[in-house]
Structures are given as structure tokens and as C-alpha cells.
Specification:
Chains A, B: Its cofactor is pyridoxal 5'-phosphate. The structure is a homodimer. With about 500 residues, chain A is of the alpha/beta class. In chain A, about 40% of the residues lie in helices and about 10% in strands. In chain A, strands 4-10-9-8-7-5-6 form a seven-stranded mixed beta sheet, with helices on both faces. A three-stranded mixed beta sheet of chain A has the order 3-11-12. In chain A, strands 1-2 form a two-stranded antiparallel sheet. In chain A, α4 runs antiparallel to α12, α12 packs across α15 and α14 crosses α15. Chains A and B meet through α1, α2, α3, α4 and α5 of A and α1, α2, α3, α4 and α5 of B.
Chain lengths: ~500, ~500
């Protein structure tokens, strides 16, 4: 039987025919045979994998290499030749495109990448993500995703145990922490009034969400998307370290009530985006209990601290909250994306809130226990098996090594803070952050994000996560900021 | 400098030390050095890649192998040993877990997988997804995602051109078609009344979405999430082929208005989930123009037909609509997930509707053109570079080969329909679909989904996409259904 795919012809019993046939006229295909050529595909995938290991693993994590090779959008467009044409390209050209895509991408695994709330290379999680891509699994039914359905369940149960919800709970992995936070808003609203799901909020009283002024912007985005409105997100003042002030929370709750509005949820943040502050969960939980409010903790960034005996006190009281968003792709270094939404409820609130009971997926006359069909817990339909990335690395490292990672990252951050205190003049340098940033990018020596905060000028936000980072790297950062900015 | 990660010690100048140190006591780490061992990581990744090629590429696409190896949830839990423990596991154990994860997963790339609206193995797209995972890119700023920002832009422009929006447009790739459809609802609502973003919908008139009774369930899920309510999704009757009846649409619009409600958008479906029907877009566009309604087309499944000169008539009128959701991961076989939301608007509606202007990401004093920072067009924060999967395969295949794929898939579907007509008694067999399904899963011979429709009994929904499928495979399906069900 002759088989051809992607323009390269072959037959099962013969060696490959090298002549490409990209330009065969439309309608010339033969339905009698498959067009797949697994040998050509296999050879291409093998060559591409070599490139990935050399360029995206070895070179990208090598401290001697650049973090980025900066080009302006207009320059880079020329280098990449982005246009999509009628004809295809040969394998060798496509392999070069793979090399280029890696070359001009920022090396987020590089030891001197401190620009985002993720960093470093985690080989187990990376391999799990390759497998997830290769097997093309969609996580809506046990039937089509038996392995990953069970793994997600196992990971969620373990995370729930670590949080300390002794009665158990429920959860789901989502494409990012923003969606996990939105799930919390939707569940809190559903618990307050399940009818909104059917009739909408058109005759509802004005609902109010309370959160600190330092919270992640997904709370506002969620309020806008869900028809609640960004003005109905009441922000609570924080102390000098960026933590929500509980008495101020209670004042805002009373304010909303006095206006005739209905506060229905509080979002506490465990690890704020800019300062890494942890809101006092225990005290906030007292207030939520008193006023019967859903308490959600956005622990996307700081949730990992709960793995550490030394640092778990930062999340004291988390066993009392209603829901948690926690991204293992941040401090625990799982591959992007890996974001869990966890809920303490045991009455299938997650399913009731989101179910649509599509008959083509969730047939009730299946031959196995359909409670394993988790798709109706999701807002989406297609959903990636992100839990596998965390499961495999947890299996490989064990809880103890995960704990070590957290302890190490926080020790590194402490080291950096001490070093900055020792260096005179560092505060001055920070006022010229945008220029220093431009210089480090063009040089490709490192990447650190900057931003203003309240009345403070632009400052660099150093994010220290990866075990690949050493004290030398942090010393380098301080010296480099000094050197890049000393003439300013 | 000594380096150790993942429990395997080594030094830069020495060969690897084999003795694992998984159980080192907490606090014993050395902040003076990195813990990364790139050699150990590299070796592990290489071994895992071999497994992926052998098991998830070669074996998974081999028609002689099973589509699935069925085990009940309880059996599979035992086989997988899911528990997460304090200690880690050795590399060899983790590699075996990789093999098992692939082995017990459903082979969605297998020529006899017809169970979902995606199928087959696309090597270019698969490699692109590996690269995206390896470089760990988040698509919110040009600074951190220069390559993929430009590629997304190029792919979106090309898709917009194919659709026929001559003035251009805007767009974004999302984690799944459900979210793309929800983006449409949110934009339509924002255009109707931008104030909802800030103040919510508490004093708004009742909003109504119109869609056919055969539409995807994400329209209802979106209405629930956005505070509109599932009862305010008015379903329009369809004809015998599953296509929306335009006159019935207009009746429903008038009904909503007579109730004092505000219809604000119509969702047309190009390729319904169950029957693959295409709503008559041109006629629906006339009605939407007359009533000033946002017209969205859910072309997640059928959008690919626009690539084909022979079949693009199915989407006649799409150049007139306001927005389109189109999933290249379905009929065009891009890796999961690859879903584009496209909007005809040229006034930055997408950005205005979703922006939150987070100061830590979207600094306005950057040294490059910040219009390339696309993160504020998104509802999420983290976002994967899914466009790259489509870009690379398009580069490799060219538009002509993509057109061939569509033509071939639709020719295959036609062949199957003709064959079914020839076979007497086939309708009878379909009434026992759940039992036949159970038998095919346990045998692992193929996977086809079934479901009821209206008053019809359960029937098998054959999804034919992949160029790897031959006429022999389709004949096999018919024979196998006959054989599995002949005693019933």
C-alpha cells in the first residue's frame, strides 16, 4: 500500500522516495490509502528533538550564554520570514525555523532570568509536558483520558491534604491562575444564589468582592467578565509590607452593606505579585465567618510555601478557607501551565455550578462509573492534562525535595535582600530602571522586571525561584545593575 | 563548582556520581552554588524522548496496535501507583512511568480513533508544541515572547485574510474554543454597553443571546459564567439537516423584544458538534444587520472548510460577521490546543474590553513599541504560544496541502455515508450503541462516540479528519460495528 504525507512519498515495503510532491494538484489524493508516512514523521521528530535538547535545554540553561538576543519587532520580523504561503517548505528549512524560534526566544530557563514569576528548567515536568503533547489528550472523559483523569485526581487529593482540609474537597486544573481565581468568583456567586446561573443577574442586588489593593489583576478581570463590574471590587488597604489590614477589610464590608450592596466573597492573596506579601488568612477567615462570606486565597505564587515546615506559617489559617488557587508552575517550577483550583466543598458545587450535561460527551448510559468524567466541572470543553506535569515531578523528587526547593528559594531571596542593604547608593540607581532594563536586554546579560508602586519610583522586582540560581548569580545581578546604571 | 539537582550529584569537571542523595535533610543546601545538573537533565530528557518516539509516535499510529488498552478506573489506579510520597524515585522508575502513561492512554493519533473532533498525528505541529514547552514562554509581552508574539500576529492576519475581512481585524489564540466563544459574548456585550465592564449588569435590561438548538454547549456555559443566565440563551429551531432556520431566528428576536428583553448577539455555527451542519451565515447576517445584532460564528469545527475552494461555500457570508472562533486543532490537525478568536473590529475593542493595565507587566515607559504587548487583549494572564503550532505546520505544508486535507477529509466522510446507505440493517444496529461501544473499547479495536439526538435513539457519530485514515479503515469501522453488535 502506498502512503504519502507532507509531500514525501514512500511505500510500506520500500525505502523512502526522496522526491517531494508538495505541489500535487487539488483533488489528486487517493482515498484508497492512508497518506501517513510514519517513517518520515519519525525522522523529522527525531531531528527536531536533537535541536530542542541542544538549543532549548543545554544552551538555554548555560550561564555563559545570553538570556536573550534582543531585536526590535521590525528587525525580528525580517529574521523570521513570517509569511504563510501556498507552497510548503522542505524539512531542512523547517528544522532551521525550529532553531530560529528557539534562538530568538527569551531563555526563561537561564539562571539569570528573574523577569517573571516562573524560572528555571525542570526536566521531569518538561518531559511530562512533551508526553501530554504527543498523546494529544483532552481531559473531559475517563474514556478518552483514563491515565490523566486519575493522575489529576491523585494530585488534587494530595494538594488538598497538604492544605489541611481534613474532610477532603474537590478541584480542577485550569489554563492559568487567572481562570482559577475566576472559578472562585463564580463558585462564591453560585453559593450565594444558584439561580443566577439560569436567570442571570439582571434583577440581583449589587454584588461586591473584597480584595487587597495589592491583589492580582485577574480579580478585576474576572469581575468584568462575569458581569459584576470592576467598580464592585472593593480594594482593602495594606500595611507597609503589602498585607491586607483586617480591620480595614471589616470597614469595607460594612461600607458595602451600608450602600445596600451584597458583599459575597473575600479574596486574600498569599504571595502578592509585586511584593510577595502574604495576607493574614486566619484573621481574615474570622471576619468571613462572622459575615458569612466565601473566602478564597489566591496562592498562585505563594502556595508552594505550604510544602515547607519552615515557611508554612505564612499561610496559617488556610485550612479554614473555601477555595484556593495554587500554581505549581511558579515557585515549584512545573512546566507552563500548571494551575490548580481547589475547593473545600464536598457537595459537588464545582460540577453544579459549571455543568451543561452535553449529551455527546457525558452519556449517562456508559459502561463505567461516570463520576470519573470530570469535564462538566470545567468552564471550558477541551482541557489539557496539566496535572501530569506536577505528578511526574512530584514522583521523581518526592515531597522532601519540593520542600527543599521552597526553602532554598526563600533563603536566596533573603540573601539578596541582605546584600542590597549593604550596598550604598542602590536606591538611587532604581530611579533609572527603564534605562537599565533596556541595556540589560540589548546586552542579553540578564532579565529583571521593573515597575512603580504607589508613590515610589520604578524599582526592580527580583523573582528568585529556581534551584539553578546560585549566590554568584545574585551577586552578578547587583553588580550588573550597578554597572549598567553607573553613568546615569 | 559542585552542582546537584534531583538527587543526582555531579561536578562540572567530573563524571557523574551515581549515588543518589534524595533524602538529604532539609536545610542542607548550599546557596553558594547552583543545584542544576544539566548533564543529568539532558540524559533523562534524551531517554524520555526515545520513549515518546517509540511509544507515542510509532506505536500509537500503527494500525496493527490497539487504539486503547481498556482498564476500569479501579484497575488502572493499581497499575499506575498514583500515590505521591515524601521520597523521590530513581530515573529508571520515572522512565517506566513515562512508558506507562503513554501505554494506558488512548491513542488519539491512531487511524481508528473517530471519537472526538480531533484525530491523527501532525508531526510539524507536534514538534512546535515540544518547542513551546521547552522554551517555557508566556505570551503577554513582546519582551518575554518576541518570537511567538510576532508569529501569533502573522497567523491571525493570515486567517483574517482567508476569512475575507478586507479591512483587516484583530484576534487572539485561546485555550480552547469554549473560551473563544465566550470572548465573542463578552465583546458583543461590551459593544452593546461598555459600562457593564465597570458597573456590572445589576441594573441592565435582560440581555438575550440567540443560537441554534444544535449549537455547542459553550454558549450556555458562557452565558452562565458571564451573569447572563442560561435561560437567556434563546434556541432557534433547525431544519432536518441541523441548520438554523433564518425565519425562526427572526421570530425569536421579535419574541425577546416583545418580552422587553434586549437581544444583543446571534451565534451561528459552522459545523455543529453532532451533525456537522453549517448555519446559513449570509441569511443570518441579513437579519443581524436589520436588528443591529453582533454576529458571531462558532466555526471551531467547520472553519477549516474555508481553506478549500471546493467547500468554502459552506461558510458563504462569513466576511460579513463580527467575530469567528476557529480551531485549527480540529479539522486541520494542529496539536491540542490551537483555537483562534478573530474579530472584524479595528477600534481595539478586544483590548478595551479586557484590559486591566497591570503596571508590573504593561509599563508604558518601555524602550520598544508596546502595541506588541498583547497580554491585555486576554481574559487570562498566562497564555501559551499556541499559534506557533499552526504557524510551523502551515510553513511546512503550505495553504495548498491544508486545502487537500480538508478536501480529503470531506471526501472520506462522503464515502462513509455512501457505504452506510448500501448496508441494510445498519439503522437497527445503532440502537445498541452503548453495548457496541463497550465491546470496541475492551477490544481496543477502534473508538467512535455515540449519543442520542432529539427523539432518535443513540447513534454513532463518526468524525473523519485525519489524512492517516484510508478507505480500508472506514470499511473496518462498518464491519466492526456489524460484528460487535450482530448478536444483540
Amino acid at each position: 500500500m502506498e502512503r504519502h504525507i507532507n509531500g514525501v512519498k514512500s511505500s510500506e515495503s520500500q525505502a523512502l522516495v526522496a522526491e517531494p510532491e508538495k505541489c500535487s494538484p487539488a483533488g489528486s489524493f487517493d482515498v484508497n490509502s492512508s497518506t501517513a508516512d510514519e517513517q518520515v514523521a519519525e525522522s523529522f521528530i527525531r531531528q527536531a528533538m536533537e535541536i530542542i535538547v541542544d538549543e532549548a535545554v543545554k544552551k538555554a540553561t548555560n550561564v555563559q550564554e545570553k538570556v536573550c538576543e534582543w531585536h526590535s519587532p521590525e528587525q525580528l520580523k525580517k529574521l523570521l520570514d513570517l509569511e504563510l504561503r501556498d507552497g510548503g517548505e522542505a524539512e531542512s528549512e523547517i528544522l532551521q525555523r525550529c532553531r530560529d524560534a528557539i534562538r530568538y526566544s527569551v531563555k526563561t530557563s537561564h539562571p539569570r532570568f528573574f523577569n517573571q514569576l516562573y524560572a528555571g528548567m525542570e526536566p521531569y515536568s518538561m518531559v511530562a509536558s512533551f508526553i501530554a503533547e504527543a498523546v494529544k489528550t483532552n481531559l473531559y472523559t475517563y474514556e478518552v483520558a483514563p491515565v490523566f483523569t486519575l493522575m489529576e485526581d491523585a494530585v488534587l487529593r494530595k494538594m488538598i491534604k497538604v492544605i489541611g482540609w481534613e474532610e477532603g474537597g474537590d478541584g480542577i486544573f485550569n489554563p492559568g491562575g487567572s481562570l482559577s481565581n475566576m472559578y472562585a468568583v463564580n463558585l462564591a456567586r453560585y453559593r450565594y444564589c444558584p439561580d443566577f446561573k439560569e436567570v442571570g443577574m439582571f434583577s440581583a442586588p449589587r454584588l461586591v468582592i473584597l480584595t487587597s489593593q495589592e491583589c492580582h489583576y485577574s480579580i478585576s478581570k474576572g469581575a468584568a467578565l462575569m458581569g459584576i463590574g470592576t467598580k464592585n471590587v472593593y480594594t482593602v488597604p495594606t500595611d507597609e509590607r503589602g498585607r491586607m489590614i483586617p480591620s480595614a477589610l471589616e470597614e469595607k464590608i460594612m461600607l458595602a452593606k451600608s450602600e445596600g450592596a451584597v458583599p459575597f466573597m473575600v479574596n486574600a492573596t498569599a504571595g502578592t505579585t509585586v511584593l510577595g506579601a502574604f495576607d493574614p488568612i486566619d484573621e481574615i477567615a474570622d471576619i468571613c465567618e462572622k459575615h458569612n462570606l466565601w473566602l478564597h486565597v489566591d496562592a498562585c505564587w505563594g502556595g508552594a510555601a505550604i510544602m515547607s515546615k519552615k515557611h508554612k506559617h505564612l499561610l496559617k489559617g488556610i485550612h479554614r478557607v473555601d477555595s484556593v488557587a495554587w500554581n505549581p508552575h511558579k515557585m515549584l517550577m512545573a512546566s507552563l501551565q500548571c494551575s490548580a483550583f481547589l475547593v473545600r466543598d464536598k457537595t459537588s458545587l464545582l460540577q453544579h455550578c459549571h455543568s451543561a450535561r452535553a449529551s455527546y460527551l457525558f452519556q449517562q448510559d456508559k459502561f463505567y462509573d461516570v463520576s470519573y468524567d470530570t469535564g462538566d466541572k470545567s468552564v471550558q470543553c477541551s482541557r489539557k492534562p496539566d496535572a501530569f506535569k506536577f505528578w511526574l515531578m512530584w514522583k521523581a523528587l518526592g515531597s522532601r525535595e519540593l520542600e527543599q526547593r521552597v526553602d532554598r528559594a526563600l533563603a536566596m531571596a533573603r540573601y539578596l535582600a541582605e546584600e542590597i542593604k549593604k550596598r550604598e547608593g542602590f536606591r538611587l540607581v532604581l530611579e533609572v530602571a527603564p534605562v537599565v532594563k533596556q541595556r540589560m536586554m540589548k546586552k542579553g546579560s540578564m532579565m529583571v522586571g521593573y515597575q512603580p508602586l504607589g508613590e515610589k519610583a520604578n524599582f526592580f522586582r527580583m523573582v528568585v525561584i529556581s534551584p539553578q540560581v546560585s549566590r554568584q548569580d545574585l551577586d552578578f545581578v547587583l553588580n550588573e545593575i550597578h554597572n549598567l546604571g553607573k553613568d546615569l
